[in-house]
Amino acid sequence: MQYRQLVKGGDNLSILGYGCMRFPSKNGRINEELTDEQMWYAFEKGVNYFDTAYPYHGGKSEVMLGKFIKKHDIRNKVFIANKMPTFLIKKPEQFETFFNTQLERLDTDYIDYYLMHALGSLAGWEKLKALGALEFIEEKKKAGKIRYIGFSFHGKGEEFKKIIDDYNWDFCQIQYNYLDETNQAGTAGLEYAYEKGVGVVVMEPLRGGNLASKAPTKVKEKIEHFEPKRSPAFWALRWIFNHKEVSVVLSGMNNLDHIKDNIYCAKNTSPNSMTEEELHLISDIKEVYKELMKVSCTGCNYCMPCPFNVDIPGIFSDYNSNSFFGGMMPKAFYIQKLLGMGTAKSGADLCVACGKCMTHCPQGIQIPTQLKEADKALGKKYLVYPIKLGMKLFSKKKKVKIKSSKKTEEKTEEQTKE
User: Fold this and answer.
1) Separation between Cα atoms, residue 200 and residue 249, nearest integer Å
2) Shortest CA distance to 141 belongs to which of 165, 119, 102, 111?
3) What domains sit in the chain, N to C, each tagged with a CATH number?
4) What is the pLDDT of residues 183-213, one digit of tens each?
5) Element (H, E) at 203
C-alpha cells in the first residue's frame, strides 16, 4: 500500500480509503459478518482510512465501523473520517447532539478527520456559522475530540473556492473522476485546494459503479484490447491516483474481488506514473461515456426518500443501464417499479414535480424532467400492458381461490355442527 499525507506533517494515510456508504446487505440490513471480513482484509493489506457519515445505512454504518474497530482492537491503527449532518442542523445545540451521538455509535472518544457534510455554497456555510459551527469546531479541536477539520462539497466550482478561502481548513472532500473534470469542484478546484495547502480526499471515483462493473460494452471493449489487461475500475482509480494533488481516494467496496483489484491499483500507482498510451485510453473511454450517459446520477441517495415514493436513484440507474447495455433487463427492472410488482409502486409516473429532491441533489440534476424522459425510454407500452393484464388475471384467479377456500371452510363448519 502507498501512503500520502492529507495534512502536511500529519498522518500517513493509505491512498485507498474505505468508503462505508455501501456495505454488503442482507434482508435490508448490513451483513455484519461479511462486512467485517471485507474490512479486515482491506486493513491487513494496508488500508487505514475509513470514511462514514451520520445517515449512511440509516445510521448503522457508524455502528458497524465502531464494532469492527473494537472487535479487532485497532483504534490506534486506523483513522476515522466522519461528517456533521449539516442538512439536519436547525439549532445551535444540535451540533453537540449529533456529534455525541456519532461518538457513541462509533464507540470512540475522538474522530480523526471530521467534515461539514455536503456543503454546496458559501451561503450554506454562512448559515452554519451563524448557528455556531466555528465555535463548535474550535471547541472540539481544542478538547482533542476532533483532530482535523474539513468539508465535503457538492456544488459549483466558484462556490468551492469561496468556501476554501473562508476558513483555515485542514482538508476537503470532492467528487472527482475522469468524467467530472469540469463538474462541481473539478480539476480547477482540486488544484486550487492543493495550492492553498488544503488536503484533498476524493469521493465517487467510480461514479457509483458506472465506471466499473456497470461500464458499457463499448468501454469494456476498449479496455479488453489494451495491454496490460486490467479492469474498468482499475483504470478509473489509476487515473485519480496519478494526480499528486490527491491524498486519499474513497471506494465504497463491498465485494472481495473488487477490494483486491482496488488495492492492487493503489499499490502500483504513483503520481504522474501513467504512460501516454494509458492516458490516451482514458480519453477514448471518456468519449464513449459522454455519448451514452443519460443522467449523471451517482446513486448517493441524498434525494431520498421521495414523499411520493418515486425510486429516483433506481430509475436513473435503469435509464443509464438501458443506454449503456440495452436489452430487456433495464426495462424489466423499471416496469417492476412502475407496476409495484412484489412491492409498492415507485415508478416515475408518481412524480408530481414538487422539487424537493432537487434541493438535495449534489449533481444538480433536473430530476422531474429526467424522470419523464426515463419513463418514456423504459416504460414501453408493449411491455407494460401484457404484464398488467397478466397481473389482473393472476389477481382474479387468486380471488376465486380465496372465495372457493372460504366456501369449503364454511361447508366443513356446517358439517361439523351437524
Assistant:
1) 9
2) 111
3) 3-292 (3.20.20.100), 312-379 (no CATH)
4) 889 999 999 999 999 999 999 999 888 888 7
5) strand 199-203
